[in-house]
């Protein structure tokens, strides 16, 4: 077994307990964060009751909504140039429900040992622990690190991969994905890509390397439009998967989770329309602006470069115990003392960090990894 993966769950439980206490420290690693584009992204959902937009007397099924599945397939043909059809799409009510379906499917199909590239999202670790599954790491470091030491097993198995590595906003390098893709072809192994933060690239490009380098007939990839738009009060996500697995997983998902609220189905359509149209470029520019303001304030003594998403992994120039924050142990990461995850969209958190500038905390040095600069 991998004790560090399951110990990570204990840390998450502790921070969640403190987060809910009155008067808790400012949570700079917060899950939530606002932005000024909510109404623009929501369209008519921003000010119209779902009852005026759909029949609320009926169950609202996502998977039976062929028009939605066709839209999602069109998104991935447009973004990735993928040969994607509605038969490769399984929509669901958020990433957590799809992770639950995937883990249950592994259990029901007799898979008790799963390999993974660290880190994995804590909910998947929770499911593995509760289901008595053995997760086996195939590396000691994370894929974006120079010392990444990938050791793929010489057997047919299931591999879980997270891309991008969300807490640091770092994408899995194409060389790593090519290696994994070749290994899949050689061993027939199935890869599950947790792509919850995909399509949030800071370079403005839309395509994802995992779509280009991993064989579609051996890969399941989870995509989360609620993260893409950073509107988490609605719930939708989808799996891109081989056609041969779709009906089996769709049936399991429906029986585990049932239908979604009609508002979530309407949002899933709206999110697909935004992806097919103007996209989330305005949101990404806003995240980059928030990053620049935080860096320019001098509140950080070190930081990692960011490529995607809205999280930054950095070291405040005051001790991070001043805040409620997630450091490396929450992500199975060694090294990087004092580094914490920072939600760039969470204004109270970033403002609390910037308010520390000028507070006594020893010598003040600002640097981005690999680029030392004395301030």
Automatic annotation (TrEMBL):
Domain of life: Bacteria
Any Pfam family the entry gives: Aminotran_1_2
Segments forming a coiled coil: none
Residue ranges of domain Aminotransferase class I/classII large in the record: 55-259
Protein name: Aminotransferase class I/classII large domain-containing protein
Organism per entry: Streptomyces hiroshimensis
Lineage, broadest ranks: Bacteria, Bacillati, Actinomycetota, Actinomycetes, Kitasatosporales
């Amino acid at each position: 077994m991998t004790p560090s993966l399951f110990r990570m769950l204990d840390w998450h439980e502790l921070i969640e307990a403190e987060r809910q206490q009155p008067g808790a420290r400012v949570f700079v690693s917060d899950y939530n964060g606002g932005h000024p584009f909510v109404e623009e992204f929501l369209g008519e959902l921003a000010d119209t009751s779902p009852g005026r937009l759909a029949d609320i007397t009926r169950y609202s099924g996502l998977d039976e909504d062929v028009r939605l599945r066709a839209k999602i397939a069109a998104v991935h043909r447009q973004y990735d140039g993928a040969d994607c059809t509605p038969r490769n799409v399984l929509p669901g009510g958020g990433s957590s429900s799809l992770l639950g379906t995937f883990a249950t499917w592994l259990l029901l199909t007799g898979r008790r040992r799963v390999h993974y590239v660290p880190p994995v999202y804590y909910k998947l670790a929770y499911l593995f622990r509760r289901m008595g599954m053995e997760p086996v790491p195939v590396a000691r470091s994370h894929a974006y690190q120079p010392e990444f030491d990938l050791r793929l097993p010489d057997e047919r198995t299931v591999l879980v991969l997270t891309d991008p590595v969300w807490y640091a906003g770092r994408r899995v390098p194409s060389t790593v994905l090519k290696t994994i893709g070749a290994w899949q072809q050689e061993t027939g192994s199935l890869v599950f890509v947790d792509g919850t933060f995909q399509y949030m690239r800071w370079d403005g490009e839309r395509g994802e390397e995992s779509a280009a380098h991993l064989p579609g007939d051996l890969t399941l990839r989870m995509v989360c439009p609620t993260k893409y738009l950073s509107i988490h009060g609605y719930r939708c996500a989808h799996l891109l998967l081989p056609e041969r697995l779709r009906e089996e997983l769709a049936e399991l998902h429906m029986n585990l989770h049932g239908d979604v609220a009609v508002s979530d189905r309407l949002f899933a359509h709206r999110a697909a329309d935004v992806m097919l149209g103007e996209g989330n470029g305005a949101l990404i520019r806003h995240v980059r602006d928030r990053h620049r303001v935080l860096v320019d304030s001098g509140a950080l003594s070190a930081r990692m470069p960011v490529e995607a998403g809205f999280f930054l992994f950095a070291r405040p120039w005051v001790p991070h115990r001043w805040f409620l924050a997630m450091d490396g142990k929450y992500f199975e990461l060694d090294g990087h003392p004092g580094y914490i995850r920072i939600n760039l969209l969470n204004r109270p958190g970033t403002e609390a960090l910037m308010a520390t500038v000028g507070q006594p905390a020893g010598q003040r040095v600002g640097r981005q990894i690999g680029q030392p600069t004395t301030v």
